[in-house]
Amino acid sequence: MNQAIETKTLASVCPLDCPDTCSLSVTVANEQILEVKGSTANPFTAGKVCTKVTRYYPDLIHGNQRLTQPLRRTGPKGSGQYAAISWDTALDLVHAGLQAAIDKHGPQSVAPLNYAGPHGELGGGSMDMRFFNQLGASQLDRGTLCAGTSSKAYDSLYGPCPGMPPHQAQHSDLIVIWGINVTVSNLHLMREINKAKQQGAKLVIVDPKRIMAATKADLHLAVYPGSDVVLAMALAAELERRDALDMAFVKQWTTGFDAFMSEARKYTIEDVVNLCRLSSEEFHAFADLYQTATEVSVGTGVGLERTRNGGSSTRAAFALQALTGNHGRLGAGIIGNSGKLAPRTRANLQQSHLIKPNTRTLNIIDIGKKLLDKNMKIPLKALVIYNHNPIAVHPDQATMIKGLQQEDVFSVGIDLAMTDSMAMCDVILPAASHFEHHDIYGAYGHNYIQRAEPVIPCVGESLPNTEIFRRLAAKFGFTGEDFTAADEQLINMSMDASNPVFKDQPPSQMSTEQAIFMTKDGQESILCNTVMPATEDSKIHLYDAELEAKFGCGVPRYQETARPLPLLLITPSSDKRINSTFGHHEDSSTQEELEMHPADAQARGLANGDKVVGWNDLAEVTFAVRISDHVQPGVVYSPKGTWRCTSDTGLTANALIPADLRTDIGDGACYNDTFIEVKHA
Fold first, then answer.
1. What is the CATH number of domain 567-680?
2. Which end of the chain is more exposed for a tag (fewer CB within 10 A), N or C?
C-alpha cells in the first residue's frame, strides 16, 4: 500500500535584488518545492508577488541547471567541462589556489567578486566577509555597479537617514515617479499609487519610455535619457518665478539655497525643449501640478542614475522636495530608503575590525580591466565569485570575459546554477538557496523585517554560504569564535536586539509567520518630523562642499555626453528575470529583443522580428527587432541580465556598454550612455 505523501505549506521570503523583499508561501512535498506564492506575513507585500517568482523558482531549485555537487574544471575556461569531486577535494583545491596567489603576490592579489545576490543578512554578507577580512584580501566598492550613485546623492542632501516608507504615498495628492518601471520592478508601490489616485491624487511619470504606469498617469514626460537634471533644475527656477517655493521651510531646514538656485536659474524652458525633448506645454503642466499640490511624494529609480549626469539628476529631483517644503507630513517626502529603519549591525556581523590597515579598495566596475592589467603593483590573481553573475551584468562584457579566461587567474565560483560566470571558474562550490537555510531579511524598498527557516533540506551536496565560508576559514586555520559562529548566532549579531520591536526576544526567535514593522520610536517615519536629516548640522544640504571638491558638483550640473553613434541603448529591467536571476530558464534563452521606434526601423529598412546586429567600437550583438511607438526616436531598449546563449556572437547588450564612462558623483557605471548603430544580421 502506497503511503500518502504529506504536503506542507511553509513561510519564506524572496531575497532577490528587488526593493519589495516579498513574503512567500511555499508548498512542499517529498522535499520538493511544488509551488511558490505570495503570503500575507508581510502586510506591505500582502500576498502579491511578481510572476517571475511564481513561474521560475521551482525550476531554479530543482531543474537541470541546479548545481548539486562540487566541480573541478576539466576543459578550457568557458567550455562548461567539469568533473564532480568531493567537498574535501574541492576545499583543498580552493585553499591551494588562493594560497598560491598569496605566496607569490600577497593577500591583496585575492578579491571577492560579489554583489547583491540574496539580500539576507547572512547570505549576503556575514561569514564570507569575515573570511576575506581576516585573509587580508582586497576590498570591493560594490555600489558603483548599481544604486551607489543614488545613495550618495541622497546622503549628500539628507545624510544616511530613513526616507519615506512606500505605503505613505497613499496620502499624497501628487506622486512623481522618476526613472522606475514600477509594474516590473516595484509592483507594490504601484498599489499605493492606485490607492492615492482613487482619492484624487495626480500621477506624473518621468521616463523616456511609455511604460505601463504611464498609461495611468495624468502626465507622462518622455525625457531624453541623461537630461533629467535639466528638467529638475529648470522646474526649480520656474517655481521660484511663480513664488511657489516654501521659503519658510527652506530657511528652517536647508543650507546652500543661494548656491543651488544660482545654478538652477541658468536652465531655461528652451533648454528643456532642446535637451530634454519636451514641449513647453508639458513643462508648464508639470510646474502647475507641483505648484498646486499640497503633499508631493517623489520616487526615483536606478534608471535615473545610470548616466553621466546620474548623480546630479537624482540630487536635483530630491532637492525639489526640500525647495517646496514637501517634508514633515504624511504623503510628502522621498519614497525610498525606509529600509534604513531596520536596526542592522553589519559592522559587528561582518567583523569589519578585521580589515587590515592600508588594504586597497577596488571599484567593482574595474575588475575586468584589472584582471588584464600587467602593470599593477599587486596584480589580481584570484577571485571568489558568489552572489553575482559579473559576465551578465557588468559593463564591457568582452573585457570581463577576457579577464576571467586567463589561465593564470584562479577563480572559485559559488552559485545555484551554471551561469556564464560559473563556466569561467576553476572550482565550483554548490550553494544552497534561501529556501534551504536560515536567514533574516530587511529590504531597501519598505520598512519590514522578516525571518525565514529552511522549507526543504539542502539540494544534493549544496551548502549555505555561511557553511561554505566556515569550511574555507578552517582550511586557512581561522578557528576563532568569529569563524565558527552558528547561523543562529549570526542572526542575533545582524540586528540590535535591544530595539523594542524585538520585544526582548533575540532576532533568531522572531516568528517566521509575521514580519516586523519598523518605526521611529514607535511613530511613522516622517523626515523633518519624527526623523531628522542625518547630516552633521541636521539640515538638508542643497550644496555639498565635499562633492564640489571631489567632482565639481557641489550643486547639480548638466554635462553634455558625446554621441558617437545615432542610437542610444537603454537596458531596463526584464519581465522575465530579476537582474540575471532566472536567466537559465528557457523563457530567457531565445534571441533577446531590441525595441525600436518605427521611424528608426524604417530608416534602416527593418521589419518587426528581423534579426539585427547592434554594434559599436566595443562589440557586436545580435537581437530580434520589436518595433514600438512606446519608445522615442533615437532610443532603443533591450532588457538587462541576458545570458550569452541569446546572441549569435556570444555577447549580450552589456558588451556594448562602456566601462570607462562614469557618473558625475560616485564613480558609478553609465549603462544608459551607450550609443550604437543597428544593421541587418
1. 2.40.40.20
2. N
